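In response to reviewer comment 3 from the previous cycle, which asked for concrete evidence that the modeling workflow produces usable outputs, we include below a single protein chain processed end to end. The sequence was submitted unchanged, and the resulting structure tokens are shown without manual editing.
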Amino acid sequence: MENYIKDFLKRFPELEEIVPSVRRAAEIIIEAFADDKILYLCGNGGSASDCEHIAGELLKSFKCRRQLLPGLKAEFEKFTECGKDLANKLEYGLRAVTLTSHPSFSTAFANDVDASMVFAQQLFVLSRKGDVLIGISTSGNAQNVKKCFLTAKVKGVTTILLTGKDGGICAGLADCVIRIPEKETFLIQEKHVGVYHLLCLVIEDYFYGEK
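The workflow returned the following structure tokens.
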């Protein structure tokens, strides 16, 4: 972890103050994945894209190659049709689910019930105690993220907020808050990318790096 943090600070020296929060977020997520839990992600607009980006880095190889172990490869190679191809190309991953990716459900629930509770409804149904939720809101005041955080409290889901300097209403609800010391949305988002890349590198290295 320390080498990745040092490299991060070379690129973002102005973010040294948030390192303790980033370290804590990494520990929370690693502990959850080690216990076979799931990471959920939610956010709006550019932050929704960030959720997809994070999930993409976790579900497949990021910096480390995550090849299947020989025993599992052998199981796939039993299939004459595509078996060797599957064995050589499938990768291990970490279970990350974006709450922004189910358009049929989201549009139906928004139309029939309440658009501000689309994230909360999914988390209520899908999550289990010990799972983790990352909510991304540059202002910290997104109502749908707030309601998802409140649902997380009831479900026993640990919450991490990626936000800006103010933190907004969501900062008071999150178990871990990573505050980018900026107020402009685009500046916050630019630095969010660096932060979650750091998180993904640290998490991947823990599970798949050379020991």
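The mean pLDDT is 96. We consider this sufficient to address the reviewer's concern, and the full set will be provided in the supplementary archive.
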